[in-house]
Amino acid sequence: VQLQASGGGLVQAGGSLRLSCAASGRTFRSYTVAWFRQAPGKEREFVAVIRWSGGSTYYADSVKGRFTISRDNAKNTVDLQMNSLKSEDTAVYYCAADRNVILSQNTRISAYDYWGQGTQVTVSS
User: Fold this and answer.
1) For residues 35 and 33, what is the distance between their CA atoms, to the nearest angstrom?
2) What is the pLDDT of residues 74-125, one digit of tens each?
3) Lateral strand order in the sheet of 77-82
């Protein structure tokens, strides 16, 4: 599967952005999809995930209540709605997918074989 992330940009603190991850392949509905981010000088970190089965979602504590992940299997897309953005949300955001993500490894970079190219999100204070 190939992933294409889009929707990043420059926004003021308190504003909103919606990222989208578009995937190729008819079996996308069987993939667990996650968003990660990497700020300058920092390691890549987990943001949110949506499971292929049942659509369960999980969030990093730092974004819980502000970000919402959703998927549209008919359109082969997974979106990340980001509200109440903070300067510390500034990062390159990556979507990732895999068919064989064990529940306990939802948040691990190593659990995902397929990655998009990343989209820059900059939040000005």
Assistant:
1) 7
2) 899 999 999 999 999 999 999 999 999 998 899 999 999 999 999 999 999 9
3) 3-6, 17-23, 77-82, 67-72
